[in-house]
Amino acid sequence: MAVTYKLTFMLLEILIITILKCCADENCETLPSEIHVTKEEYDDMGSLVRSCSGEVMVNKCEGICNSQVQPSVITPTGFLKECFCCKENYLRERLVTLTHCYDPDGLRLEDEERAIMEIRLREPAECKCYKCGDYSR
Fold first, then answer.
1. Cβ(63)–Cβ(28) below 8 Å
2. Backbone angles phi, psi at 98, to 5 degrees
3. 13-47: b or e for each residue (b if 16 or more CB lie within 10 Å)?
4. What residues contact 50, with CB distance under 8 A and at least 6 apart?
5. Per-residue pLDDT of the chain (137 residues; tens, 9 = 90+)
């Protein structure tokens, strides 16, 4: 009888450690990231008017989300898969200024009106783990 209690206690302890480890490994988060952005502007005839670029700080989603595959007699494949991915919870839109603008010949533009370009971009405002393939958000 004492052996059964010890075995039950050990199994319970292993289960608790596994659950704690499982949840502790999940760390999907919103992180700052620098990207290079280039935007070209064309006239009505399709000719290049100017090209602007710059380094921009944006948010990205990065981290680990727990997934599992286990045998199953119910599913047609014989496995029950639960996959989770680190994705944006919602996006925010913001204006970004590109400060390196050039004409079609590659000469840097100096006049105030054409020397900078404002563009809109969307970036993750918050990230979390979602079931993979869940696009219903």
1. yes
2. -100, 130
3. eeeeeeeeeeeeeeebebeeeeeeeebeeeeeeee
4. 40, 41, 101, 102, 103, 104, 109, 114, 117
5. 555 655 454 544 544 444 444 445 689 999 999 999 999 999 999 999 999 999 999 999 999 999 888 888 888 888 888 899 999 999 999 999 999 999 999 999 999 889 999 999 999 999 999 998 766 55
